[in-house]
Amino acid sequence: MCGIAGMIDLTGGRRMAPRGAVARMAKAIAHRGPDEDGFLDEPGLHLANTRLSIVGLADGRQPIANEDGSVVTVFNGEFYNYAETKAALQAKGHTFRTHTDTELIPHLWEEHGTGFLDHLRGQFAICVYDRKSRELVLGRDRAGICPLFYSVQRIDGTDWLLFASEIKAIFASGFVTPRADPAGLSQVLSFFAIPGPATMFQGVQSVLPGRYLHLKPGRASVAAQTQQRIYWEVNYPDRGEEDYGADESKIVDEFESVLYSAIDRRLRADVPVVSYLSGGVDSSLVVAMACRALGRAIPTFTVAVTKEGFNEESEALQTAKFLGCSPIVVPCGDAELRGDYPELIAAAECPVIDTACLGLMHLARSVHHHGYKVALTGEGADEWLAGYPWFKISRLTKFLEAVPGLGFAVRTGAAKLMGQPAFARETYDRPEQLFGGRNGWLDIYGMMSFSKLRFLTGDMRTAVMKHSPFDDLELPTGLRRWHPFHRGMYLGARVMLAGHLLSSKGDRVAMHSSVETRYPFLDEDVVDFMAKLHPRWKLRGLLRDKFVERKVAQRWLPKDVAWRRKKMFRAPMDSWFGQNQPPMPWIEQVLSPESLRKSGYFDVDAVRMARAQLAGMRTRSLGRPALEMGLTAVMATQLWHHLFLKADLCELPSALPTTPALGVAA
Question: pLDDT tens, 84-106?
Fold first, then answer.
């Protein structure tokens, strides 16, 4: 993978960007591509790439053009259909001059125009420019594995679009001032993720998964040019038209074949590929199939949370021994959690509430330390095959739908037991109306999200509650025709995949250490196959989740591994606020009354009372998780504010790149 950045004159005036702006943008994301960089500077268009060389090591420097130089591109990611697509293009007369998959882009543009994205399989963020037609496309992969952000700024009378793989590169230009966006904060506090297109920063948006911008400088309005267009989104069959799969062996055979092919494709690289390995079935099956495809054991990396009840090291080592792998175990305890959290927030560019992200950051750091660049992961199976507990809870509590008002009463009572504040009925009803009924994801995350009512100041609460974050999700038109189980599955994936698991827990922590993570369960063919199946292949009965995957895993792994229950991996929350923890100055500093008043997000008394309440709670108290996560959200937001907006809340340095003093027009 790589980092990309650039500036485009949207007015068509073909002016040169201010000197040094794009070079600073590239420097801010040098960690994404430490091997080499490349630039294109011409009137109205400035592109940059920082390269992590994985395919075509000797001749893959970007930007890359077609034969006559009329189409040029910069690209972050991997195309797993590179060999097949290259051969097809050569058969049509296209000439390739390099051995890198990047070169597919200009030739596919020549063949298909804006439809070129339909012919790419993999993970990517792309900028392609046609010098003849003066068109430019910014596009992102279907799952949202590779990040892509943009901002429109008026500079010296010209509207410029700035884009980059990370937001810090946009700030490095010197033409965008970081300011908090209440819409982004609302998403974080509601979902513990930012599914977009909003970010934590005003005026900066993310390109959503499966979407692109089609820019025609000077020939369309700024609003028209920056309208995100859909080229792909997951689509479930209408209810009753799913593949019921009466022949179990046939379904299992087909899933085994499509998953194996996805893993085999993701082993294509000109550098060695390793794999993450936890104690769960997803990563274990990926490692087993990778070993078969390679004809040898693949190196594995396992994080060990050094806290009783959270460590999956023994389970992972069991799988590694069975497959003949030599595992590398990476410890992550309280000291690492408390000491490295500021680095995590700086990498993610948003508040991160899921402490498990630190374990993944340490894994990537170890992969890089051992000289590797590419790692397979098992992410994505839980989203598309019902691996999370809320799917079971939803099925168990289905009877609540039968009695009007019963569901609201039960959930209000549960929220009270968890120590959550009361909420209005319409706040509860609005998401259900959008999604055509209740679902398990809403039951869990919807309830936890009401913590924001507990901590926000009056003014901030008004700003955040003014607009529902659910209205930003831009739901598929056919969603209400889907099976209710699939509606819940879509919601969890739409919010959590690109908004958290592939960003704060994926790309951002991996590429922070110059490591590319690859996701076989998010292969286009795998996702399409899983989507068409009847829910019974995802959850059989009340307990047998990921049913079709586990049936496949029985063929590859010991039975106890194939049917092992999922653990919600996280580092323990009491690492922050435990009574026996050594002092960590920045934690107390960002949560001090003075710092809370400076940032203005959170009520001083509410935070003080919550901390006192937590100190008096038993470790396994029912209300403790919600309180811990709420306070972690407060702390993470305060830390984010300090690192990116104004570094006056604690003793840590700012995370913003240093830029010269420039006049900035929003």
Answer: 999 999 999 999 999 999 999 99
